[in-house]
Amino acid sequence: MAKIATSPVSLALRGTTLTYLGIMVILPLVALVTEAVTPGRQEFVAKLTDPFAWHALKLTFATAFVMVGINSVIGTATAWVLVRYDFPGKGLMNALVDLPFAVPTVVTGLMLVALYGPSSTLGAILNSNGLAVIYQPPGIVLALLFVSYPFVVRSVMPVLQEIDPAEEEAAKTLGARPWTIFRRVTFPTLWPAILTGTAMAFSRALGEFGSVVMVAGNRPLETKTGPMYVFGEIESGNRIGAMVVSTVLLGLSLAILVGLNALQRRPETRK
Amino acid sequence: MAITVRHLSKRFGSFQAVDDVSFEVPAGELVALLGPSGSGKSTILRIIAGLEDADTGEVELTGEDATNLPVQRRGVGFVFQHYALFRHMTIRQNIAFGLEVQKLRRPEIRRRVDELLDLVQLTGYASRYPSQLSGGQRQRVALARALAPAPKVLLLDEPFGALDSKVREELRTWLRKLHDEVHVTSLFVTHDQQEAFEVSDQLVVLNHGRVEQMGPPQWLYENPASPFVTEFLGAVNVLKLETVATIQPGHLGDPPLVLPGRSQSSLVYVRPHDLEITRSINGRPAWPSRIKKLTRLGGLVRLELVLDDGTNLLVQLTRESCLELALAEGESVFVTPKDMKVFHESASFVEDYAI
User: Which of A86, A162, A173, A184 is best to mutate for the B interface (most B CBs within 10 A)?
Assistant: First the structure.
């Protein structure tokens, strides 16, 4: 339990960090929201329900959901493999998991274009079979899958490492088969971490710009996502429209963050 | 026999954890696997449970070969040192787990869980979580959970190792009582000889992955077959033969120490309570000695003596006899061994002397 600090040094330290947080994080946030809501509620709703804006937001959520559905499973599986198994090349695999964090997102987009784009062999084969990826929503999902892959893996791994193997062994001696053990013993310990990783990945996907802009093709009402819409509207002078969509993206990210915090405070998920 | 293991061996890399171990546990008995850490006792227990595979050897449970049976089908209850309770389940759910896996009917599970909660004296705790219980309570839940599916044998891996000494003692007594009620064949691992003495019907003493000796605790204490067992089962003085030879013979008869077969490498073992302190020579053979240190331990007193040749000797006597003799540090006394064991390095035989 942290004690309430009273010494001059700690007061100063506390004041400085709080001021910093205020200036660097809260102030810009307030500025954005203020500007978005200043024209009034009607204007806000109008800007939000603008078909282009609305479609961009829907596309952002849809692609983020598909990504999260895949990465929560694959990410958990990856963490499982990295923690539970020993195999040659494990160290390399462990390092590669972090690669998406290190690669500039624009480069990520470019890599996908190089692999799946119309001018590549694979892209040509896909295109001729009516499975175009690049400049289509599947391309966006691919980009999101790539950039948010590490989140679930990195949030599940430490929990998996910490699990007392004796709990699973106890279940085994009580007659439980592997799937029952996973479902009833391991997963209940793991799911808060899976959820945390998933939510962080989702948050990240809501704002992903660099990689998506390379693979999406920027076609309004087809492949234009929220962040791309915001960027485009600022360029073309629709400042309020950009602010409104930004506020919605921001609000959702915040809601996820607050929700996660609340979840982590629940007594039975705590150790 | 409820548990039979034959020629078990297990290697971890270059470390021979278990080395040709064979023993039997009769049905209904509570047997302790006793040994220092690294003696292979936990590994043997885990092999019996099927949590570890032996390199060679066989395991039989209630007369049936279980060597290749998966853990799930061995019908063993296992209690872990750190409880290993399912932390996200209530106490009731924990105990019910094994019964649910067996797909018993709900009312039956309820009845059985209530029965076990009563057995481990935790009736009011059914809806609590493990984190809300004390260590001793948690281990009782673990025991109830292991007993719920009515296992053929109960295996306990250092079950009291994580508890503080007072709770440990209470739980020991309680386990012994429980075993007298339930009579499930139990094998438990411990490194604490006092615990093993208090709880078990039989001991299997292990050292370096091998069985040193087996038998009822008191019998082993009185008839140890090796220096290791002698030293492990309680405090003991180890004397060289030369030291023993310096004893002043008593006029009531010579000490029967001159026997054929002894060599310079033979060692003599005397328990601290097998030494008698006298103020003057009383006719029996004795060493003159000086009291280096006197420590009062409640009802007992521990003396550290120095013999004339510099050998240190640990003596234990009751508070009363210490008062009677009015002993104090720095004083000279005579010390007589009442019982000695001589181990010969070359041969594996023991000579037992009573004076």
Answer: A173
Backbone angles phi, psi at B161, to 5 degrees: -60, -30
Whole-structure pTM value: 0.81
Q: Is A164–B78 a contact, with Cβ atoms under 8 angstroms apart? A: no
b/e A242-256 (16+ beta carbons within 10 angstroms → b)? bbbbbbbbbebbeeb
**Burial call A222-231: b when 16+ CB within 10 Å, e when fewer:** ebbbbbbbbb
Domain shared by A148 and A18, yes or no? no
- Closest-CA residue of B relative to A169 is B51
CA B273 to chain centre: 19
Tell me how many domains chain A contains. Answer: 2
Helix (H) or strand (E) holding B154: strand B153-157
ipTM confidence: 0.83
Spell B157-190 as b/e; 16+ CB within 10 A means b.
Answer: bbbbbebeeebbeebbebbeebbeeeebbbbbbb
Q: Are residues A98 and A5 in the same domain?
A: no
- Decide: B48 and B105 in contact? Cβ < 8 Å: no
Q: And the tokens for A101?
A: 């964090």
Q: DSSP states of B13-57 as a string?
A: TTEEEEEEEEEEE-TT-EEEEE--TTSSHHHHHHHHHTSS--SEE
**Cβ–Cβ below 8 Å for B88 and A189:** yes
Domain that holds residue A126: 40-269
Q: Are residues A143 and A259 in the same domain?
A: yes
Residue type, A140: I
Shared-domain flag, residues A183 and A194: yes
Q: What is the DSSP string of B284-297?
A: S-BEEEEEEEEEEE
Instruction: With H, G, I as helix, E, B as strand and everything else as coil, classify residue B207.
Output: strand
What's the pLDDT band for B341 if we cut at 50, 70, 90? confident
- Does CATH number 3.40.50.300 belong to domain B3-232? yes
Which tokens is A157 given?
């791994």
Asked if B71 and A173 come within 8 Å (Cβ–Cβ), the reply is: yes
In chain A, which residues have their Cβ closer than 8 Å to the Cβ of B78?
A: 169-170, 173
Which three-class secondary structure state does DSSP give residue B169? helix
Would you say B300 and B273 are in contact if contact means Cβ atoms under 8 Å apart? no
Residue among B88, B91, B93, B189 with most chain A CBs within 10 A, to mutate: B88
**pLDDT tens per residue across span A73-94:** 999 999 999 999 999 999 999 9
Which 8-state DSSP code applies to residue A211?
H
| CATH no. for B237-354 | 2.40.50.100
